[in-house]
Every structure is written in structure tokens, then in C-alpha cells.
Amino acid sequence: MSQETLEGWADEDDTLPETCLSFELRGEWGHFRRVEGNIVKQTYRIIPRTTVAGLVAAVLGLERDSYYEAFGPEVSSIAVEAIEELRTINLPQNTLSTAKEHMTTMPSRGHARISMPDPTKLRQQHNYEVLVEPAYRVDLRLANDELRTRFRDHLRNGTAYYPPSLGLSEHLAEITYLGEFDVTPRERETTEVDSAVLEAVDNVELAPETEIKVERSPAFMAADEDGRTTTAFQSIAYATRTEPILVQNVETHEVDGRRVMFS
Amino acid sequence: MSLLPEPSMFNERYGDDAKLARKLPNRPISSLRDLQYVYGRLYTLATAGGGEYAAYLTPEKSTDLFDEPESLLYLRVDLSGDEPGLDPDRPVGVERYGEGKVEAVAHSWYDSARGFDHSVTHRTGKNKEPEKVAEYLHERLTAWAVDDVIQDAAADHEDGWIINELATLGETENIRERIETAIDEQLDGKTTALTTVAVKVEPDGKFLLPGKASPVFNEAMRARKQAKLVSKGEATDSVGDATDLVTGHSGPAVGTAEDPLNYFLGKQLEKFPGFDPDQAWRTHPVSEDVAVTLMNASTFVDACDYYTMGANVYYLPYFFGRLGPEDARDLYQVLYELVHAEDMTPIESAYRSYQDTPRLQEVGKRFRFYVAAVMEHQTKRFDVFGDSMDGTLFSPVELTRKHEQVLQSWLYDAEGDADHPDPRLRAAFPTPDNWDIFVSEESTLLSTLATGWYFEQTFATGDDDASADDYRIRALVAVLSGEPLDVKAVLTEYVDRLLEDEGEEFPSFRVAAQYTQLCALADAGLLTGREAYEPVAEPLQLTDDHPTNDMYSDTPARADGGNVAGARETKLEQFLDQTPALDEEQPERRGSFLLGALVGQVTGYQQVSEGRSTTLIDQYPIKAVTESKLKRLASDVLNKNVVYSRENNMAGTMYREVVDRLVTTLPRIDIDGDWELDTTDLRFYYSLGVAYGMNNWASSDDEQADDQPTATQEEA
Q1: Does B528 touch chain A if contact means CB atoms closer than 8 Å?
Q2: Hey, of B239, B243, B481, which one would you mutate to test binding to chain A, going by the most A CBs within 10 A of its CB?
Q3: Cα(B70)–Cα(B73) distance, rounded to whole angstroms?
Q4: Pick from B289, B683, B229: which is nearest to B500 by CA?
Q5: A93-127 pLDDT per residue, tens
Q6: Which residue of A has its CA nearest to B367?
Q7: Is the Cα dihedral B151, B155, B157, B160 positive or negative?
């Protein structure tokens, strides 16, 4: 099996199916680096939408930077629900410096060169904030028939082109297929939402018994000739202990008896 | 001293809701950058009026120099002649800096670790020798004026010649020596100052400071500051088209914006595509406007930062959701008060604002805090030990209130008016006067908590250096952000501290302090425990009315100690009833506690009645308690108790209320089976028992006598 590119796939068919593929993502650890830090290594609590896209692309074996269109706003939608209490710990790790003076570039001349930290240098200890036993349910809709079919086959067979991971490659992920479910749109209303609440922080009803938290993470990306950029960020509200959140006047979908929000 | 306008002035200026709303973000605050943007925005609104350069200047950075002697030094440069030169009569001006000179001095600060300030005005380091001060002044000509970015800006400006002339003067022979001589003559000694230039451009003109002399100075300053947004450290031109992470607008994004919290630095290449710092704008895209606004957050961010236990703790107030105009005015007031709160931690200041402002109370749960503890190993090496967007005031305040309640309950009786199960006996645990943690007063407790002292008194002291696994900092951040602590980890800290303490004397006060804290944390919902630890995280069942209160009057006098023994029985029964962790279903922990109580009780007896220097607790210190030894220790201690009882000619055994329970609890402990508790848990509750037992004596001397077993009580 060879890695594939996605040329021309995204515009084939851009209506979303009325069903979604649902799966559970679990791991012992997870680390989704927050964009506001590089010197500090703090993690998002809810797996960012762009990370879900990357993970699905890894399962499918899609080439780097080739899949952003297929996960664009019109042709894909993703709902994420944390299904275990979200906990983090501080995990100090010894890392190599990536400051320029500590980097080795090989070969020393020519165009195809790579830079890497000098492994003989002393390590520095840095603290990583990592999620402990994170687990999410993901509901995914993809307009592209071929990608969807192939992904469903992978889910059914428990296979993946690249090993899926939760943020960092060392935090391996376990994927469990839950099935294909109908997605039923619901009228705008005040309702309890089971998934992470997307772009509706102002509509969240704060209640003393439910601890509501917020974060803002990358949602969509685009590639250009030199790399990629995030084209949209989204604000997310969630409850640490995974209980449903009451949200005023909000559009939701029903999936498998649950209320979720797609983006 | 601060240049910020009073909140009333701010409210007056921005009284129009619709107008103010247009200047605020149109979506909820949901990240640290959002919050910094709001701070920067409020700061710019508050200090607006400084003209088009206001957002680039940093007047707040040097308000500490106001009215200080020798705090403003400038070269008096005459540019009115053919050749630039220093004023021969008075080459250097030495003055007091002050509020009236802010605009003229036009200072734009830049992290000194990275180079000179953006403006021609540069702030010296602290207490510099005259020689060093002269060097700073010289550098206005030889470093600032010749900088590439400054030169480019000068080339585009009609007054650009002024900067060129300054550069020329910098190359003049002996100029450095002349500045040094002038400084030597005019300066008393070391100083901290703003160093700058004053130029005279007309033969009959005056020497004017940069802000008054020509807009070219500010224009060049702005160019320098903007240049640093795309070029810093290894990055030379980090700019590209992307979506701004704060506003969501697409356009040119800069990669090396300054972050008042320093979470993002251009030097850390790991997250840049191809380790290329010029690609920084891809991972951290902010527009130039937003970047400048983020920098302007620093006055407020600095006011919300304090240092404790080797870490910088940030406590940044905001309102959950989208910031409305009224919220913005309230937030400005809170921040203004934080800037002016001198000896208070930000937590105390915010709480005071909250208490004084009915509107904040109405806002209630929406009043939130970004909380973080940051350890600065070196200037460019940081670690965050914990951070959260979701801190509230309720969590620390609730904890202090619960703490007060525990202290006022019969367990501690800090105020001497608690409803005791039996007033003849002392409270369950001692409350020494000189410990802050036993002061039953909200503002003291809040301060003790905020400064970290609350946990420093009870947790292991560990290394001197702060580290990521320093649980004291973790606990502080958890309490401030309302996240529960793992009870097992807390008990580990407690026991480690007790082992550190245990020397000549058993640390009863420490145990008492720890237990107050444990009860308060549990009651405030700040503990979680899994499996066997679950009951430890449960709040005590402290009731106001004691159902067992009536019992003691009916309890017959007992062989081992008469009425006081009856009182002890009632007290122990009540203590065990009210403590979920010591339920009968928890035989290991209950057994440990009872064993400790017996050891403590006998130790107290040995100390008071026999005047012994070596007591039972010396023979059975905390570290002697292990899972496997518990039963054997218990039988040893029980045997010793029997011996003492015989020595005292008693028919029964001393402290029968403890002995009986211990004897029924021990067989239920199955050491060969599945041990659910680890040594830490047993040791803590053993210590708690010892502290309880040692404090379990009668309040008055008369009854102390009653407590002593005597031959006359043998018949029962």
C-alpha cells in the first residue's frame, strides 16, 4: 500500500452524508500543544479539530499537507465528546535544545539538507502538561465518498496506514469503531449538549454544579507552497467531568441518542 | 505611582455603551491571548490621548523613577551650527524625571536582555555606576542612531537629518571622554535613570527632549518596535499571510510578537516548520495591530503577578463570555485597583474589589481568572507548572470559609465557644496561637493561602528549587483554579513533612494543621480520591447538635478513669462517627488511628504523670508503621498498656474506649489479603491518632487528677 495524494478529490462531491462514522479515541497519554506556547508546553483538553483531521489522514495514509481541503468546512463536519474525566499531570521530560547554535545541519552543503538537534549535547528538563488517559468519542462526516468508505474499512478492520497518536507520536492512540449513525438536525433550541460546545460560549448556562471550561484551538487549515496555516480557530466550552452542558438557543444534531455540535 | 486614569474618569470617557462596545472584541474571551488582547485594549483606551504613538510608548515602565533625584539624564546636543556638538557650557542635563516629562521623554521600553530600548530614550539597569551611565548616554549616538531600522526610518522622514547628525556626533573624537567627564562632575554616585538626548536645532532655540524636538524620534521608535515583530533572535523576516488568532481576520501575520508572559519565544524552533524561525508566523499568527495590543497588556499582567515558592503566580481577572461595555468598565476598575494594591496579593485585591462592588457580586460565576504558576529557570527557559483559564474567586474564598468552620468546630475550638461533646475534655486537636493556619479569620487565611504559606506549613519542604513536581505550587494553582487535588498525593505530602519534622518531639501541631487543611479541602470539594481513598475526600459530618451529648450524663463512672473516662468514650465515639475515613468499613485506617490514639494517650500519661523522658511514641515513631507491621505493633502496644494498667493496680485496662475498639478492629484487618491502603495512608492516620491521644486530657487540673487510675476504682 502506498501513500496517496488527494488531488482533485475535494471538489468531487461536496454534500455531507446524512450519517456519520463514530469512533472512540483513547490513549494512556495525550498532548495537544496550545498554540500560544512553544517555550512552555501546555495542552488543550479537547482534541483540536485539526488534530482529528490529521489523525484520520494518518489512518488513511494521506500525504502531509494534502488533506486540508477534504476536511474543510463545507465538506466535512466533526463533533468531539470527552468521555472520560479530563485530567492532566506535569510530566518533566529531558529535551534537546533546538536553538540554532545547538542544531546540526546535514549534509553541510546542497539543497536537500535536514536540521536536527545535536544528540551529544546535554539535555534540559522541561515540563510537559499531558492529559492522563484521555478518551473521546468522535462523530465524523466526510463528503468525499472514497475517503469515507476507506476510513470505514479501516475502522472496521482495526487497521491504520500510520500509527494514530494523540498529539505527539509517542502517545499512541487506540481507536474503537462504534458504527455508522444517522445525523438528525435539530431546531435551534435550549438544550443539553453532550459533545464539546462549539462557538457558543456566550450561550452556555453557568450552573454551580457543573464546572464549565473554555479554550480556543485551531479548527481548519490550508496549505500553501511553503507549508500550512490555520485558517480558523474555534472557541470550545466543555465540562471537565464530561457531563452535558445546558446551552441556550443553539443548533445541534442528534446522533445515537446524543446531542452534539458539529463544526 | 501610575499614570492610569481613575476608574471614574475612564467611565466618564467611555460612558457610551455603543461606542465602547465597538472597541471591544466581538466574541468571548476563550484563550490567554484573547485575555491579553482585552488587557492591552483597556490599557490603550485608558491611556489614549497620548497621540498616534501612544500604543508604542511605555510610560508605565518608569513611573518608579518619578521625582527620584538624577533620574533623567540627557546629552545636550547642539545641531544649530555647522557641526553637531555637545553644549560646551552644560554637555549633560541631569534632572528629576516626573509625570510632566513623560510625553517629552517618549520612552518605549524593550527587554534589556535583547538590546537597547526602541526609543532614543533608554532605561539604565538598576543602580549603575557613573561610568556605565556615561556609556548608556554615548550609545544613544553610537547604537540607537546608527541602527539599520532607525536609519531607514530617518531616511523617509523630513527631519531624518537630526538622527544622522546624532550618529555623526557619536563618531566625533573624544566624545565618550567628554560625556564621562561631564557625568563624573554632575552625578553624585550610582543611579537608575532614563538616558536620552535633548537637541537644539535653531541657533536661538532651546534644547528639547525627543518627544518635543521632532516627530522623527517617535517615527523611528515605532519603526524599530514594528521591526522586532518580524525580526528577533534568529528570525530575520517572519511575516506571511495568515488568520489572526485573536481577531480571526486574515492578513499579514507577524511571527515574533512579544508575549508579556513569555510563553512564546522565537528561539524555540521546535514548533516551526523545518525549524525555521522565519516560519514562526505560521504557528503563532497575529497581525501587527494585535501584536502591539498584546504588548500593551504588560502593565496589567505585571500587576496580576506575584512571586511565591520559587514561581511567578499569575492571577488575571476577566469575565466569562463576551466582554460587554459594562464588564469592560468593571474590569478596568478591578485592574486599576490591582495596579494600586501595594502589599496585597492579586487574590486579596480582587477579593476586596469583589466585596466592595455589588455589580461584581451580581456577575457572580462569570467573574473568572486566568491562573498560572511559571518557573523561570533562566531568562529564556520557562516552565509552567499549571495554568487554567477557569479560576474563580469562589474556590479560594470557599476554602478559607470551610477552614474557618473546621477551626471553630469542636474538633479545634479555636475560639473556645464550640459545642463540645464533653466540656471537661480538651478539643480533639490543639490550636497553638502562633500558627497562621489556626487563625480563624477570613482575610488572614486568604492571605496565608494566596502567598502559598498555607501549603508551605503542611506539605513536604522538598528541594530549595521549585520544580514541576513541587506539589505545593500544584496545590496552590489547583485551589485558585478550583481543580480538586488527589487526596493520595496530599497525604503523601503530609507524611513526608511529618517524617521531616519528627525529631525530639512528636509534631502534634503539624498534624493538627494538616488535618484542619484536609477537612477544609474536603468540605470545599477540592479533594478527589479513588477507591479506598474516596472516604478520605469526603467532608466530615460535623453536626451542630451532638446526639451523643446526652449520653455522658448516663454513662456510669468507669474503672479506668471515672467520669472523665466516660467523657473520653463519648468524644471518641463522636469523632469516629463524624469521620467517614474512619468508618468501620475501613478497618486498616481505623486500626491505625486507634493504635495512634492509644500510643498518644499513653505517651501523654507517661509525660504528665510519670515524667518519663522516653515514652511510647519514641518507641513507635511514625516511620515504624508499615502495612505488614501494623498488627504486631498493635499487639505490642496493647501488651504495654496492660502492663501499665497492672502497675497502676487496675482491674481493667487503661483507656478502655480505645482498647476495646482496637481489639474489635484488628481482626478485621486482613494483611494477607488485598491491601487497599498504602503505608502513607496508615502513617497519616496513625499520626492523627497520636495527636488526638496526646491532646485528650481534661481541661482542668482537678479532673486531671480524676483521670489517673487509682486503686479505689478497682471494683468495676
Answers
A1: no
A2: B243
A3: 7
A4: B683
A5: 888 887 777 778 777 777 777 778 888 888 888 88
A6: A206
A7: positive
* Main-chain phi, psi angles of A132, to 5 degrees: -100, 120
Task: From residue A214, give the alpha-carbon distance in Å to each of A21, A219, A249, B290, B528.
Answer: 26, 15, 19, 21, 22
In the numeric block, the cell 466574541 is attached to B27
* Rg of chain A (C-alpha set): 20
- What are the cell numbers at B129? 555606576
Convert A76-105 to b/e letters by CB count within 10 Å (16 or more is b).
bbbbbbbeeebbbebbeeeebbbbeeebee
Asked if A201's CB is within 8 angstroms of B320's CB, the reply is yes
How confident is the model at residue B463, as a pLDDT?
63
CA distances A49 to A18, A167, A219, A251, B559, Å, are 20, 12, 5, 19, 74
Nearest to A98 among B269, B366, B483 (CB): B269
Side-chain-facing half-sphere of A149: CA atoms under 13 Å: 3
Q: DSSP of B527-575, one letter per residue? A: EE--GGGGGGGSPP---SS-GGGGHHHHSPPBTTTHHHHHHHHHHHHHH
Contact yes or no for B264 and A90 at CB 8 A:
no
Give tens-digit pLDDT for B279-329: 889 999 999 989 999 999 999 999 999 998 888 999 999 999 999 999 999
Q: What cell was used for A82?
A: 470527552
Tell me how far apart the alpha carbons of residues B632 and B630 are, in angstroms, rounded to a whole number. Answer: 6
B671/B602 Cα distance (integer angstroms):
26
pLDDT of B504 > 80? The answer is no
Q: How confident is the model at residue B466 (pLDDT cuts 50, 70, 90)?
A: low
Average of per-residue pLDDT across B166-185: 93
DSSP 8-state code for residue B276: -
Query: Of the candidates A33, A211, A90, which has an alpha carbon nearest to the alpha carbon of residue B373?
Result: A90
Residue B487 belongs to what H/E stretch? helix B487-501
| Out of B32, B271, B279, closest to residue A33 by CB | B271
Judge residue B127's burial from the number of C-beta atoms within 10 Å of its C-beta, 0-12 exposed, 13-18 middle, 19 or more buried. Answer: exposed
Contact list, A211 vs chain B (CB under 8 Å)? 390, 482
Instruction: Look at residue B564 in the predicted model and tell me its pLDDT.
Output: 79
Per DSSP, the three-state class of A258 is strand
Instruction: Name the pTM for this structure.
Output: 0.86
B389: phi then psi, degrees, rounded to nearest 5: -80, -5
- Contact (CB<8Å) A36/B380: no
Q: What pLDDT sits at residue B546? A: 45
The 10s digit of each residue's pLDDT in B188-197 is 889 999 999 9
Helices assigned H by DSSP within B48-129 = 102-105
DSSP letter, residue B140 = I
Does residue B23 register a pLDDT over 60?
A: yes
CA separation for the pair B529, B32 (Å, rounded): 31
Chain segment A166-177, per-residue pLDDT in tens: 999 999 999 999
Q: Which pLDDT value is given to residue B713?
A: 38
Order of strands, edge to edge, in the sheet holding A124-132?
A: A29-30, A124-132, A87-95
- Name the H helices within B83-129: 102-105
Which class for A221: exposed (0-12), middle (13-18), buried (19 or more C-beta within 10 A)?
A: buried
Chain B residues close to A129, C-beta within 8 Å:
384, 386
pLDDT score of B712 more than 80: no
Handedness of CA A160, A164, A170, A171 (dihedral sign): negative
> Of B62-76, B210-224, B544-558, B664-678, which gets the smallest average pLDDT?
B544-558
Q: Which member of B284, B366, B469 has the closest CB to residue A35?
A: B284
Those of residues 430-469 in B touching chain A at CB distance below 8 A are 467-469
CA A248 to CA B550: how far, in whole Å? Answer: 53
